[in-house]
């Protein structure tokens, strides 16, 4: 359809503009969870990506403070606006993760939180009278922070990544990569990719049949960079009259926007400029649908069991509305 | 000129008139120890990837430690057995001085998911070295004693920039009374100078809060002011923030130095502005090596020995030094034996008495019970008897004597009468 042919021009190509306007009016939600030990640079990285102080570091402030015994979940919600587009951004920090001597099960609160958000959405979807727009609190992206300097994945990383990738989009990141030279970085990334393949852990972006060549090329270049070796900073430094965001050492200044210094620009573009809507979509289509299927199947089985019990003459009392059976046990999580 | 100064020990301090020559004694000791050679055992502890092997090799400027094997299979669990202890010994020589250096590595520390017991194998290893030395000391023939006690322990702290982690505190609390603990901030090139200051202050605050004793160089009154100043300088830098490198990089002016090359600059290992490596090396090798060995022998080993012997039940028995008299000893034994027998007897009779009392009480109780039951039964029987008698009386009173009653109507057969009166 050529737009300048008045007789045959229908005009449905303006739908993109209509959608854009609706989107601008409505705004959208974006939820990111940060998983990593304390001191990995999570808060600084998030503050650098969004160019504003969104989250405070949750490390211990004094010697008297006790080390957390379990992983806590602390979500912080803010509304950011840029060029008329409003985003309700929720950053979920996980202080206490991996900080104890015995880290068995430190991932359980994290998995439970992610599943709870899916469950809340499902509940609202299943209501007879639904809200017009269901507020989306599902976790769209998970930044998993790796330790620079290890040879590859640690046992804790393997355990947690296996479970996280089943419920959300996981993006592995090395936040304090200024302790690795360029060669060390290359070796480390290669090793991580090998280990991820070995353990069959699939991180975002996933390949899908709908991709065209452009998408595939973009995804390939992203996959090359995984895990992103970034440096975060909240400080603005002046060198040669220009102000840049970076870190000043005694032997040099790191500019986090310099592609030779770190993958920060690539990560930010990937997260916000190219794959933002994809992250939201994949969460809804892949992870949420998986969760929904398993939940509904469980409900069906429960109902069948109760019907069988009632038929057998026992005092089976089928509840009028079956509550969602989602309760992650240690075995599930 | 003779001066009679009474010093603290009560000895008289005298000044001499000429050169006697006993000031040459340290040189004699020096020559003898050179012939014997020295040994030094250094233990390194820290999670994998913190640069332990690189730092050791940098410290001793030779490939003492082979480091990790990068060709290991993907996906293989690195340390399935938890913490291992592996030791490497090297004989190195410098200016005619022979040093037998042992480096004990602890691969697997802090690498599992559950690291609660990570410190135990290390404590056991340190204590077993003390035990071995103790056993050698107690031998009859002590001419050849091999000393492989741990002289210093370098603990590598992850440069998070925050505070000490749970595993760090746990480890240090369990080890600080057994070794000279030297905490080191590994891979410190990830921290800016300001962050290093802050991190050091936080680490020291945590260490003080938990009462952990780390090795600190102290000066005493015999040191010259230069040494005192040096010691203070070193002490101020603890914990040392270091980097290590086995490779050389080229500086802008063409010189080659040990360092690491980044896109944003070069960090030099031996540059004091860049990191504290030089200070660590100075303290460990150049100034305080003997102090470390001495503290191990005098303070740490002795306290371990005392604790162990007391725990084994040894008492500081002054009788050991008296002469051994068998007759006196026999009499003592007989007396002790007699006293013990007496005590036993008293105990047994007490127990016997108690048992007798108990049995008596029980028997009395059962007697009472039987008594009361007997009474009850008797009462019940009486009641029954009176009831039956009453019945009998009533029956007799109701029943008219045959022939005396008024024949109002014809006498019915007996069973009808029964019915009229409601039948009994």
Automatic annotation (TrEMBL), chain A:
Gene Ontology molecular functions: GTP binding
Write out the ranges of the annotated region (Disordered): 307-333
**Keyword line:** Cell cycle, Cell division, GTP-binding, Nucleotide-binding
PROSITE patterns noted in UniProt = G_SEPTIN
Q: Which domain of life is it from?
A: Eukaryota
Domain Septin-type G stretches: 26-298
- GO CC list: cleavage apparatus septin structure
| Gene Ontology BP annotations | cell division; septin ring assembly; sporulation
Q: Record's SUPFAM superfamilies?
A: P-loop containing nucleoside triphosphate hydrolases (SSF52540)
Q: Which family does it belong to?
A: Belongs to the TRAFAC class TrmE-Era-EngA-EngB-Septin-like GTPase superfamily. Septin GTPase family.
Annotated PANTHER family: SEPTIN
Q: What is this protein called?
A: Cell division/GTP binding protein
- Organism the protein comes from: Linderina pennispora
UniProtKB/TrEMBL annotation, chain B:
Renumbered residue ranges of the record's region Disordered: 362-424
The Septin-type G domain is annotated at 36-311
Give residue spans, biased composition: Basic residues.
415-424
Coiled coil regions in record: none
Q: Cite the PANTHER family for this sequence.
A: SEPTIN
| CC annotations in GO | cell cortex; septin cytoskeleton
The annotated regions of Basic and acidic residues compositional bias extend over 362-371
Q: Which Pfam families match?
A: Septin (PF00735)
What family is this?
Answer: Belongs to the TRAFAC class TrmE-Era-EngA-EngB-Septin-like GTPase superfamily. Septin GTPase family.
Q: Which GO terms describe its molecular function?
A: GTP binding
Keywords on record: GTP-binding, Nucleotide-binding
Q: Which InterPro entries match?
A: G_SEPTIN_dom, P-loop_NTPase, Septin
Name the record gives this protein: Septin
